[in-house]
Amino acid sequence: MSVAVGSAATRPAVRRGWLAALLLATGGVFAGWFGPIQILLPAQAAELTGDGKEALLALVTGVGAVASLVANPLWGLLSDRLSLERPRRRPVVVAGVLVGAVGLVVLALAPDAGWMIAGWVIVQVGLNGPFAALLAMIADRVPAERRGFVGSMFGVAQIAGVVLGTAAAVALGEGPLGYAALAVAVPLLCLAVLALPEERIALAPSDAALAPVRHRGIREVLAALRPTAAFGWAWTIRLLLNLVNALVLVYLYYYLSDGVGVDDPGTWVLVLTLVNVVVTGIGAGVGGAWSDRIARRRSFVIAAALVLAVGAVLFGLLPVLPAVIAATVLIGVGWGLYVSVDVAIITQVLPSDRSTGSMLGVANIASALPQALAPLLAAPIVTGLGGYPVLYLVTAAIALLALACLPRLRGVA
């Protein structure tokens, strides 16, 4: 049975300044990720290889995602080790942002596919540091009954970062200047969170017995790694719905160019991303506050999976611009509903306060792994197994598969 992590009585109040700083930093991290994923990497792959662009993009994003799978739990473990006596997540934010910025510079200067892969691996390893630490800060500081709203805002900040990164990439010519701009913007957006004080964590009752052994350091953190069945099912649902989102995004640039036939796919990716962020933001903000008020999370996951499936079917069956815009709205609604409860669910099923960063690092694998799986699944479908219609019908089926996992997610209302 899962243990609720903390309560309103054991958490400091959520201050507006702290929340604003958290959201700015989150937006910066996702700008550094998705400006490349949506625009810069596809354009760079096309420039370097021409007809082999899909295969190169799949290789680059796949290798980078594997690096992310390893990096995120390790960053989380490090942040837990630093936080044994009091929360100290900021050193991980600093180190990760600096590594990620170096990777973006490498990508800007990459003369061939090898350097492109190396640069993206460095970006993934680096930016997983602040991502792990920022999510752990929510579990450290936010009462369980407020995590629907704060978690939804965390999700909205991610989507806003996608827009920022995409806009920077398009505005600066879909090339090296875009990478360079992101290498500067990401650290700047993380500055505010570094200036805020970090407060002491109050242990949940389940962790009181660990207090006398703090001197054991890393062994204490490792001893608190106790995944539960509820955590496993929450992890699986997160994996499936993030895979849906990744499959929609991974070849969007090429889908618009080759499948829909638009003349300026980069601009349309930006337009659709703007539509998506507005709809997602509204859905997540309303859904998060609503889920807190009624103290229910599962019904939002059900609605999210169904709406995502409908949007994916529309992408697959009607590759014309008006239908693509309508499908984007549906994807935004579905993703917003899921984002509104995602953080609340995953933090509710954490087994221990002493392993918050480590277990959230494991949880974040479910967000990173789809970046590796999506191109591996999409590339053979797009190039020889039915093209974009089959790709998006498979995406819809994956969304519905998440529903089959929900009855086993016990302990979450």
Q: Key terms for this structure?
A:
Growth Hormone, Chain: A, 14 helices, 413 residues, globular, mainly alpha, 0% strand
Write up what this structure looks like.
With 413 residues, this protein is an all-alpha fold. The protein has a single domain (16-197, 213-408), classed as Growth Hormone, Chain: A (Up-down Bundle), CATH 1.20.1250. It has 14 helices and no strands. It has helices at residues 16-49, 53-82, 90-109, 113-141, 147-171, 176-195, 218-223, 229-250, 252-260, 265-294, 298-317, 321-348, 356-384, 387-405. α1 (16-49) runs antiparallel to α4, α5 (147-171) runs antiparallel to α10 and α8 packs antiparallel against α12. The longest helix is centred in the first third of the chain and has 34 residues, at 16-49. Mean pLDDT is 82; it is low at 1-11 and 200-216.
Strand content bin:
under 5%
What is the CATH homology-level superfamily? MFS general substrate transporter like domains
By DSSP, the count of extended strands is: 0
Taken together, the total number of domains comes to 1
Q: What gross morphology would you assign?
A: globular
Structural classification? mainly alpha
Please mark out the parts with pLDDT under 50 across 5 or more consecutive residues, or reply none. 1-11, 200-216
The span between the termini is: 14 Å
Radius of gyration: 20 Å
Query: What is the level 1 CATH name?
Result: Mainly Alpha
Please state the second-level CATH architecture. Answer: Up-down Bundle
Reading the helices and strands in chain order gives HHHHHHHHHHHHHH
Average pLDDT across residues? 82
Helix content: over 70%
- Examine the coordinates and then state which fold CATH places here, giving the name of the CATH topology: Growth Hormone, Chain: A
Tell me the major beta sheet.
none
Number of helices: 14
